[in-house]
Structures are given as structure tokens and as C-alpha cells.
Amino acid sequence: MAKQKITVKVKGKSVSYEGHPERRPRDLMDILIKMAVAESAVLATFRENIDNHSEFSDEQVMSMYKEAKAAREKKDRAKGGSSSADAAAPASAPAATTEEEKPQKIILTYCGKQLSYQGVPSGKRSAVLQLLSKQPDVTQTVAVETFRTNLPGETATDEEIWRLVEMLRERRKAKGQSKSGAGESGSGGTNHAAVEDLVGMSEKERNDLNDFIRQVLGQPTSDVGLFSSDPKGRNEGAESPERTGTARKSGKVTVYLQEGNTSATKLITATMGMSFAEFSSNVDKKFGHHMLLSFTDGDDVLEVDDDDVLNVYLEKVLEGDAKKERLICTNPEDAGRDGDEQLHDARLQSAYGPQVVATQAKVYSNGELTVTEDRTYTGHTLAVYCCCFSPRGDMFVTASRDRTVRLWNVRTGGCTMMKGGHNGFVLSCDFSPKGNRVVSSSDDRTIKLWSTSSCSKVATFKGHEDKVYCVKYNPSGDYIVSGSCDNTVRVWNADSQSKLATLKGHSLAVFSCAFSNTDNGKYVVSGSDDRTIKIWDWSLSRDLKTLVGHIGTVWSVVFSHNDKYIVSGSMDYELILWDTATGSRLRSMDGHKTSVHHAIFSDDDKYIFSCSRDWSVMVWRTNDGEHVETIMGHLSTVYHMDIKSNKLLTSSLDDKVKVWTIKHN
């Protein structure tokens, strides 16, 4: 069998390498030894990473581990009198360049700088390590990312890379002391040791590399924590002088802010990797009030409303001309103003770009329903990602980008913040069917349980290895299901907080999950960034069906109350109704102009409600898919909804929550 890219999880970190799948168990043992994993953790790590782990007894697993450990110790002894530094130094290569490997232009990237030297590819690993060892302030994170950026095919672990850098530092320091500082050179008061002889490199190659290192290290000190700010890379060689729109100083990016549909601009500085919350706050300070942010990509207008989209925009600026890649800043009040109280298609024009039609929906009704807005609730300071009614409908809970979970009184509009909150954006929340608990999840990788009477934290669930995008109770409140960017779905005991099942099958992040209803949650449905929907028998950890039909990320999935149907919403703008029993696609509903974030059934399953980045909530008849209503009122993306009897609850990027009344005509 051909080699494949294999990834294992060890000590909370992902380790990738090229290998043969059938050798994965023994490869894992080698990795455990190299990473000095405690013997007590071997069995658990093996069971987590090996799909067919049930075929191996505990004794067989530990026997493999001991064999691998003995082989490693024997190999170390065979090295004889080699010093630890020599053992950790880059592997030796032939002193002369082989005929097959001729000198060529080699590019190295470090802290946003790229320069070239003439050399052979086999010497690049040594060059990278020498470069890192000569930077006194380099951190382990930067060292590892620099190594992997320049040597993408390498399989060394993070710890091994850092150990190599540290040992080369010690080796260079010892050499420098024995030579009383000989060989050092510098200018302008900055001295750097000359590059040692690198095995397999010619004298000219060493000189070129030495010049490169001096140029990199001789620049004004940069914030190495901002390394890898341009992950897609640049053109080889020096940066083009035409890239005048972006200022690359200490990893910073100059952004041109265009106010509304005018040609007036302001300047602001951003850094790759900065959070959307920080960036948005800086923009708001620049204008003196809150602004909605967007940019043009071809014929589309994309709202900048989270970290991922912000980084997409900043990368777009880096790759082009900042003056042309302007960020469109719109006052929410202007965006929502129209004589007929309808949001019209606003044409946003950039001085250097094409006109693009914005993607807000328009109010619509076929007369079947009457929808009225009861109240707008304010209190959150940033986007409200999730909302959920209490079982009696007299309260609701919200989860926000401002890192808070809040409990609201529907009648009075008052809210209480849960005490002891998350350390990241709160992405999801749900009320327990008993009404005494609330569960929430966050990009801090945790799930938290709260008391609704004291608004204090009851417990924290840990286990996911990445952002937890969704949490839901089963109908009895005994279980909680969660979906995460670690590609798994997990089921937990709500009372003991113990993990009952880990469902693996999605190849990318899981953004939505829910229990079935009529059987007290025997089944779970999940939607993923891999564009598929899966139905699970979670007690058996079995993937029963995979529903394929969306061509974009699946943001939302839910069973109907009678469990006959599943409705899904996607980044491809489409809603799809599925037959639960057969997994077949019954119909699709097209109407939204942008990504569909959430979709749910009415209490009687007669209607489907969907919300989107087009600022709208749309209502559809379940039996024939007819578009019944388009509800407008929020001034930005509508992220989430809940329904209790004839009341609709919505939450939005505009920081607001609204309650609506729905009547049948």
C-alpha cells in the first residue's frame, strides 16, 4: 500500500507524517517514545488513535511499546561516544553534491522576510536550523512554524524541532567560548556569529546563507510572535516594489476603510491573526460608532463578522493592493433605513473596484401568516450567536461573542450574566427540558453547565480538542450532545458530566448536532464542514447514514418533532428536507441570498424557519416547500432562532435579540 498522510493525537497535539496505514500501530509507538509519553498513558493514547484497537489486548499493546523502547535504546547506544548535541544535530549528508542534486535557488522564509541563496535542497534543513539557532529571542512556537513552513515534508515532532534548535545553540555557544569570540562579525553595533560549516554545503552556499542570516537578523527587531502572517507565501525573491498598498512593519497590515458608498477613506493598522473583536473595536473607535464591515470578492459582498473571515480579508490585502482591497464600513442605522421600512439592495462602490450589489433580502408575505415584532432586547456588546427559550417560554438564554451567557426575562427584558464564564467566544447554548440548567459551549474548547436559579456555574465538561460549536439536550435532559472543530460528535451524561460516546466519521469540523425526539434521543444527527450530514446510533457509536447533497459547509441540522424529517441549512444558500428513514432528499428550498446559518421546524412541523447572512428569517411550508414569509428587522446576519408555540426568538450579529409573534390568517 502506498504511503499516505497520517495524523495522530498525542498529548493533545496533532502529529502528521507520511507512512503506511498498516504500520500505524508501530509508528505510533515510535512517536510515543520520541515524545517521552508516560508509560501509564500508552494504552489510552493507543485506543484513541487506532481504529481497530479492539483487536489488540492490553498486553499486546504494551509489548509493542516495550519492543519499540528497547529498539530506540539500542540505537542510542550504537551511536557510541557521540555527544548529545551531535546526536541531535541535523543528519549528515554527503560532503559533495551528488549529480542528481544540482545547486539551485533556495528560498527561506523567516518572520515575513524572504531571501534566496544558491544551494542544494539537502542542505535546506541544516540552513533552517542554523538560522533559528542564531535568533536569540525566537520562541518554540515561531521555531516550529518556521521549520514547518520551510520544510513541509518533515515529520519531526514539535518537541524534536525545538530540541534541535536548543542543542545547536548550546553547541554554537561552546564553540564561541573556545574561540574567544573569533569568527563573529557585525555592523552598526549588532554582532552575529558566522555560520558554521554546514554538512553538504559548498563554500559559496555557506557564504550566501551567511549573508542571508545577517540580513534577516540585522533588521530592526520584529515581533516574532506575529510570524506566519502570510501563510500562502509570496513570490520568490525580494518583495515586489509594486506592493505599496500594504505596510509590512513588524507583521502589520495597512487597511483602507471606505465609509459606506462614498469614496472617503480612513487608515487603520491590523496584524494577521488578530481577533475580529479587537479589529472591529479599533474600526468603531476610528469612526466614533459601531460599523458593519464587508469587502468585495468578485461579484460577492462578504460580511466580516468573525476571525476566519477577517483573516481571509487580510490575506486578500496582502496578496493585492490595499488601496483597491478596501474594507467597506457601513453604519447599521444607514444600512437599515428605507422609506417602506424594507431593506433595499444597496450598491456599494469602491473607488478602485467594481460596483457590487449587497445581499440583503426583502420583506415578503403570501398572506398565510402575520408576523409582528414584540420586543428588541439589548445587553450584549457583540454578536449574539445563539438563543433558546426556556421550557415555559417565560425566559430565554443567549450566547455571545462578548464571552458571556445571559439569562433573560421575556416580559421585563431584564438579563443576568452567568457567573464564571468562558475564556473565549460563546458559540452555542441550550435550556434543559427541566428548566433548571443551561448548557453552553465555546471556542475555549469547553462545555459549561449553569444553574438557572443562581446563575452560577455547576460544572465544566472537558474533552474536545478544538472549538465546540454546538450543544443540545435530549428530550428528557439526561444527555447532552456536542459537535466540535476536532471533527467529532460527543455525547455526555448531563448529571455526572461523564463522556458516553465519541462519534468519529466526519473529516472536517462539526458545526451542528441534535438528538431525535420521539425516542428520547436514541439517534443523533450532525452537519459538517465536509458538506455531509450523518445520522448516528450514538449508544453503539455507529454511523447509520450519510446524507450527501450540499455543495457547501452544512451549518445547521435538526430532526422534525415527529422525527420523520431532517432539515439542513448550508453555506451553499440552500435548505434541504430529508426523509429520515431512507436518507433520501425530498426537496430543496432556495430563497436566501447568502449562507443559511440555522433552520428549525415549527412546533407542529408544518413550517420550516431559516435564517441567514442576508439579515432575514424565511418561512417555508414543509409539505410542499413553498416560500411563505420573509421577516426583516435585524440589521445584520441572523445567526440563530428558537420557537415556542407562536413566539419566535432570533439573535444577530447586530448584538440584538428579538421576540416575534406569529399568527395564522
TrEMBL record:
Alphabetic keyword roster: Repeat, Ribonucleoprotein, Ribosomal protein, WD repeat
Basic residues compositional bias, start-end: 1-12
Keyword Metal-binding: no
Positions of the UniProt region annotated as Disordered: 1-22, 67-101, 172-192, 221-249
Parts of the chain that traverse the membrane: none
Gene Ontology cellular-component annotations: ribonucleoprotein complex; ribosome; transferase complex
Protein's recorded name: WD domain, G-beta repeat
